[in-house]
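Regression check, L-homoserine case 430:
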Amino acid sequence: MSAPITIALLGGGTVGSAVAKLLVENSEDLAARIGRPIQISGIAVRDASKSRGSIDPSLITTDAQALAASGADIVIEVIGGIEPAKSLIETAIASGSTVVTANKALLASHGAELHAKAVAAGVDLFYEASVAGAIPLLRPLRESLAGDKVRRVLGIVNGTTNFILSKMYDDGADYADVLAQAQALGYAEADPTADVEGFDSAAKAAILAGLAFHTNVTIDDVSREGMSKVSALDIAAAKSLGCVIKLLAIAELTDDDTGIIVRVHPTMVPNSHPLASVRDAFNAVFVEAQAAGQVMFYGRGAGGDPTASSVLGDVVAAARNKVAGSVDPGQSDYADLEIHNVGEAKTSYYLNLRVADESGVLAAIANEFARHGVSIQAVRQDDVGDDANLVIRTHSAIDQDLQATVESLRKMSEVRDVLGVMRVENGVSA
Ligand code: NAP
Ligand code: HSE
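Current build output:
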């Protein structure tokens, strides 16, 4: 019998425990697919006294550094965060281990540096589980679509926020209650601010943009707005406009193909759009490419088992390379496209205004839109006492012109309050 492929697991939480369970349960099939048996050499955790179900207690260690340096064939990092994960991955690479990680926060901030280290050491660095849980997405972008020209990537890439927004929209559920449910189900990050304020989606958007556009993109390049300010009023307005609200990650080429814009923000999505029916912790991502047209990826975006499925896919790929004595090509960033601000994107807006119900007010408001070159698509007026409520939808315009329009409206004496502003996704344009 040939020597086993050794696997060191850093982290034994939601994802790590599911990975350990699947490695044991599926060991015979995995061995057949790889061509050699696999063996877990250790599992590093912070607190060795915690009960960990079916995990063999003799594998548990609190010395993550020693395990990372042990020279295992494959080191899986599912601790999360920047440190100690970064140092541990660097140690593993320096020790000749291939690394599999689910850590989008780390890849979106230090990905280029880690990829360079992996190439220099002649090892693989795989991270399919870092974006959209169980969904095979990064490998299709890197390999299957490598011959095409991607124009836009657009999707729901955070399970926690989609779970919260779905429950608020469908059941009128309370934000804090649903966030607690998402945490209990293992969807949320250790600090759920990363989910609700859009940092997690922004990290994933950076990773997707980097792969789609062959450019080094970090989380600092991503324009980000979270979903914590989405109100019951926004949800009611979305319903009245025939839309749902989703936290979308969007990465797109500029019109002249020389740059990209990467953004994350709450968005009204028409009910007819395929993304509108993506509920609970599911994720879905559209890729629009020149020759392929639209390709949609859909599946479970968070949770232990779905994420472990992606991790194990990488483990098999990494182990096959070990058996063959090969490595995958390094990260492609040859295009080095310029990264533009969200202000240059083309978007449309929904606005909800409380205004004085007097003659000439509607004309004055319409004039502000016209002054900024923004065309109004639809207006609905409802009387509210002596005031009126205006729900306005615009045509597509340059985002910074829309932002300037909103700022001007806020200063008008006739506008009592700006109750809601949100971007609206018009459709899939490929
Ligand atoms: P988690 O449940 O908080 O687990 C983290 C694990 O790391 C725990 O076992 C913890 O030990 C261990 N740990 C923390 N600090 C450590 C240290 N200094 N040394 C050794 N071990 C340490 O997190 P998770 O949800 O599994 O997420 C792990 C990674 O997967 C993150 O990068 C996350 O973004 C990513 N991810 C998660 C999901 C998901 O749905 N949960 C999906 C995709 C990607 P103790 O058990 O002793 O506390
Ligand atoms: N917290 C993340 C989410 C985990 O909710 O999508 C999956 O990356």
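Comparison notes: The longest strand covers residues 259-270. The chain has a mean pLDDT of 96. No diff flagged against the previous build.
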